[in-house]
Design a protein that fits this description.
Layout lengths: L2 H17 L11 H13 L2 E11 L7 E10 L3 E8 L3 E6 L2 E6 L2 E6 L4 H14 L3 H7 E7 L4 E7 L2 H4 L2 E9 L2 E9 L4 E8 L4
Antiparallel strand pairs: 1-2, 1-11, 2-3, 3-4, 4-5, 5-6, 7-8, 8-9, 9-10, 10-11
Helix pairs in contact: 1-3, 3-4
């Protein structure tokens, strides 16, 4: 895999982790909770948040920290703007992903990256409250209560599993406050998310 492809995939995983907002359960007891959460999320047409992400990389003694802003507009526009330590941005609009860093911009089609496209379809299905779309991409487990819940997402496709082994999402009601994802190579990332309340 080319270094540029690895950077693209990891960057989009960060975007995915920040935006993925819902889940499901294998247990019948949680069915009602999942349905309610999906309905709440489907009502949210746009949102903004601040994030702090820490990446734990095996060859480094301490985590790499970054922070910035997230935004989305239903059904398929999402943006992640990293402000510290270095400015860069990722914009997902329909099937186009635009990366900007060091004054250079690159736009790619998701059709060229099937694994990434699968992640994106998981996001779109979630934001639309489309449980079937989410379950096509992930094996998903839900624990906790509507006030404090946690999801475990495991990619179904082997190609996706070679990049990321699982995603863990924590939140309350219709808000996500934590996202963590484990890379197949042993590295991991943890993101704290603070929704921005509009006046």
């Amino acid at each position: 895999m080319r270094p540029a492809d690895t950077h693209l995939r990891r960057g989009l995983l960060a975007l995915l982790g920040a935006m993925l907002l819902a889940g499901t359960s294998v247990g019948q007891a949680a069915e009602w909770q999942v349905g309610e959460l999906m309905q709440l999320l489907a009502q949210t047409k746009s949102g903004q948040a601040r994030f702090v992400e820490r990446k734990y990389i095996a060859m480094l003694d301490k985590p790499v920290e970054s922070s910035g802003e997230l935004s989305f507009s239903a059904p398929d526009r999402m943006e992640m703007r990293t402000l510290k330590p270095k400015k860069q941005s990722m914009l997902l609009d329909g099937n186009r992903l635009t990366l900007e860093q060091d004054g250079r911009q690159k736009t790619v089609s998701l059709q060229s990256y099937p694994e990434v496209a699968a992640f994106v379809e998981g996001i779109r299905g979630t934001l639309a409250g489309d449980r079937q779309a989410l379950e096509k991409v992930y094996k998903v487990h839900l624990i906790g209560t509507p006030v404090r819940w946690q999801l475990m997402l495991v990619p179904r496709e082997p190609a996706m599993n070679r990049i990321i082994s699982r995603i863990r999402i924590g939140g309350s009601q219709g808000e996500v406050t934590q996202v963590a994802y484990d890379h197949a190579d042993g590295d991991r990332s943890e993101m704290q998310i603070t929704p921005v309340t509009r006046p």
